[in-house]
Amino acid sequence: MTDSPEEIFFLNDSFRRLISTHSNISNIKSSLISGLKQQKIRMNLNELSGPPSPHVISKIKESCDKVFRYPDPSWTALVKKLSIYSESPKNRIVVGAGSDELIAAAGRITLSPFTEVIAPTPSFSSYDKTAAFAGAKIINIPLRKDGSNDVEQTLNKVSSATRLVFFATPNNPTGVPLSSEDIEKVVKGVPDTALLIIDEAYFEFAMESGCGNSLKILRKRTGPWAILRTFSKAFGLAGLRVGYLICGSEQVYLAFSAARTSFNVNRIAQIAAEAALEDLNYMQDMVRDTISQRQYLYRGLVNLGCSPFDSVANFVMAKTPKSAKLITQELGKQNILISQINQNGFEDFIRVTASGKKEMDIFLEALRVILGN
Fold this sequence. Notes:
Blueprint: H1 5-9, H2 13-20, H3 25-37, E1 41-42, H4 54-63, H5 76-86, E2 93-96, H6 98-110, E3 116-121, H7 126-134, E4 137-142, H8 151-157, E5 162-168, H9 180-189, E6 195-199, H10 203-208, H11 214-218, E7 225-230, E8 243-247, H12 250-258, H13 267-277, H14 280-303, E9 307-308, E10 315-319, H15 324-332, E11 336-337, E12 339-340, E13 349-353, H16 357-371
Parallel strand pairs: 1-11, 3-4, 3-5, 5-6, 6-7
Antiparallel strand pairs: 2-8, 7-8, 9-10, 10-13, 12-13
Helix pairs in contact: 2-7, 4-13, 5-13, 6-7
């Protein structure tokens, strides 16, 4: 049997293996299109439960007549504000079209065939993808029982071929962070020959929940490192795709800067992100409100006989008395979208975004009926 045109195109063996983990490309496309077309209760993508600041909306409207101009390729105004917000030098900040672009860039500057990437699992799927695109070997490290990244096992798997190491704190889908002690071990244990990436997509929620700031610890590291953060979660700009890196050195900054396109973040997105940083009180109020929603969701899941992880993000992952596939299918019939964990050993786990109380009550009542409580 001859290869189809699609199979011939994907010559990279790692990428073929990545695709083989899904049922088929057509199903992936159909699922994405279906999700976009249907107006449902969205508790599956870890989006903020409400719109961004009115100040952000106002600035977006004011800038619409300027879209015939290219955006600032150096994100000058945004980086100036990010420098203050993150307490980092301007020449250490790289902005991208969401976290995905920056994760892909990490692969471009470090990986080639016969090199290795180490990443937690289950976690953000883009880590595996960046390895596949480069033809590098991905070494997945199972999470600890508490849902956090397993630092000891990760460090044990580091070899002379390791060029890129990912940690996520808090981890997605569990929402569990690494302790300051863990970050200390990571900083000391990852060799200088590997780029260390700490993914802090849920940074603002974690900080409000009392977690330590890993940036202070990372600055002790002699080897290359970067922290990955985003405007998609706490700032409510998921639809505009703005992420950023705080780089540990000028060399890392220059490498990431070289690995991107010239106009990677559009004009509206840059202006919206700038405006979001001008109204931090709104963001902090939304974060506190989301944490209250998460705690409500956690209690509701416990009352239904589920076993949730101790998340500090804007979602909760829980083990359920019935299969996650059954639950997501039944909820889907009622226009309620949540996530299941498509990995062996997690067949009974669901992940649910903390949303408004009305939406969560609808979800919890539907789940109660499905579970037969």
